[in-house]
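Running log. JK asked me to keep both predictions on one page so they can be read side by side. First protein, sequence followed by its tokens:
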Amino acid sequence: MEQPAAGDRSTAVPSLDPSQASLATGSYYRHRIVEDPEWSLATVPRLTELCLQHIVRNFQNNPILDRLLPGHRRKVLDRLSTSLPLAVTANLINDEGYWKRCCTERWRVCDISNHGDSWKRMFFERHLENILKRFIPNTTDPNQVLELIPLCKDYVRKLEVDQFLPPVQVDRKEERDDLSDTGSDFGFGEVSVHHYDLGVLNPALPHLEELHLTYGVKNCGMNFEWNLFNFTHQDCCNLAVAVKMCPNLKVFKLTQSKVDDEKTGLLVRNLLDHPCLVELSLAHNLVRDKGARALGELIERSRLETLDLCNNQIRHLGAQALAQALADNPTLTSLNLRLNCVEDQGGEAIGRALLTNATLKSLHLGSNNLSEPTAALFSQVLAQNTTLTSINFSCNRLGLDGGKQLLEGLADNKALTEFDLRLAEVGEETEHLVHQMVWANREAARRGCPQHPPAKPL
């Protein structure tokens, strides 16, 4: 082999035959391909993107939001987990998009129209409702509610709790034996079945405007016991105090809870001077005449606009007490007495009150065992009253003559736009004629046509 000359800085390269040179070259290129198999043209993420990812990952420990630019804030909110602690998100995040994700991921059906068209309000109202529905006295940690109150108090305006669980009984058999010894066939005895005390919760919700409650247990199945549906005297005392301490409460509904006359009186005493209450419902309870008299006093002293007493046990004495309060009442616009038994004595008393009342717009007297005398008096009401827009006499026994008298009274009435006489035994022809006249009034009201001037009361 030839030696390089002295002073020559070039490196000696051994000579290779053509076949070896070709093999060496091929090996070189194959080595380059295997060296970086994942090589691509993708660019490295921007520093801004890496920062946003870090903020999202560490949001629970270091919530950074207000200091971000609007576009960056939007990206962070879209990526935040809906399982973050409420202590972090409640008072920091007001973005409706985030709370919409929280709601839709948790509940299958979401209707924000029942929650002021606000996703955040819906989340906190339903979240608190779910905790109250599952709260077991003496078992559930009260801090579940107490710790949530500071987080949700600015957003909760309506609560609908259709279940209250009683305390867990240690020995159900022993309890049933005790009840049978006292002669209680239905288990109505109040044996430590007091429910969650809303007196702890309601005063801490300054914006609460609507409260819908049912004291009972849903889906109890084979575990059914009468005591699961017992609204005790202590429950009523606690609730009455709680409602009185909600100065902004406008709507209060306590339904299907076995509210009797005594409990009605207790509630009314705490509602007499309530500054904001405009709607009260005690539907599907056990209110009788004494309770109705207490409610009559409430009508006289409060600003109540809607009273629903559907499906109770009010008879003519209770209806007469309500009628007396209604005669000169300046605020009540809706009264529902469906599924009671006021009979003609009660129906006539209400009719006479409506000859002077100039406020009530809706009256429901369906299924009250009414007959022709009530129809005869309401014929005068229809001829004179210009305020009533809706009357329901369905499922009574007004008779053919009663129907004709109502038709006569309706002849010059231009205010009534709803008149239900189904199953009232007035005859198909009368029903048809009444329907035509009411439909004409409704069309005239829709077009804004002037009505007859109001008649002077008797």
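And the second, directly underneath as requested:
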Amino acid sequence: MAQTGSQMLPLLALVLVWLICDFTTVCEFATGATVASKDRKTCLKIENDIREAVCNENHLPGAGWSCCGMQAFNPEEATCCKDGYTNDTAVTEGLSEKVSACCGLKAYDQLNFMCCNSTILAKPAPNAKCCDNDAYDEDKQMCCGPLENKTILTRNSSDHRCCGRDQFDLKTERCCDMNDSLKIQPITSSCCGKESAVCGTEAYNTSNELCCQSTVVSKPASNAKCCAENAYDEDKQMCCGPMENKTILTRNSSDHRCCGRDQFDLKTECCCDMNDSLKIQPITSSCCGKESAVCGTEAYNTSNELCCQSTVVSKPASNAKCCAENAYDEDKQMCCGPMENKAILTRNSSDHD
């Protein structure tokens, strides 16, 4: 049925309002006008997130802005957090990336807070550390016990170390493994020094445990090695990924090596650095052998990374060198100490060696 002119007027008015509202939004995108203070626009009762639309249209509200997933944010006023496993992202407003760190998808002020097992906690002291889900003052307290059953103790003295969920005095006592249980014994005890050692502040049994980043973990095999704070069987598994985000993979074959958090076959593939990301490519690819190399079982980018004692570390400078498992800037720093206990020091002058 044909519509009369009077019937068409409401429809034309509705279309006109929509066009005006949509044109206003497009103009704000083009000019980058105060998007931070007008993050959301309501158009005919439909709410649109300008920041998401901006990232979708591949341009940003102003200089210095970045995309966090599909959301635009200003790193001076907000922080972007990313989950390395799911690739989910989230923006925490009101916290500059200069002072923040991420705890899962939530950012926090790392000067006053810390992240323990994905929980943000207030720091009890400047040098506070995590003890499972709690925080403790390392100068006055100790975190003792096995990984799954730790407890916080008041430190008796600077000479005290953990022995299971208790503490002992290094000057007069030893922590000994007796019948698969750690016991405190006099320093003259015949058991001392046989199978126990100290990991951070905790004694452990070297026959069936490892010390990984000052954490005692059980050995999954006799040839077990550390992968961050975990242990893995080197014959059957691989420790892959950057230092701050490692994962343990089941080894596909003896010819497989790490490529980021994945693995590739040395016989048929290579690991290439493509747009600052390691990608697995066919061995015939033109990128093979240009910038990537293998460090132990892990591929790395030779332009900005080093292989230090079979560990991939970021270069702090173009002339960086290895100091044990760490890298240092030879112009500004020095690597000092015996082989088993190296330390990186700030160089006082070019005359210091």
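Observation for JK regarding the second prediction: The radius of gyration is 28 Å.
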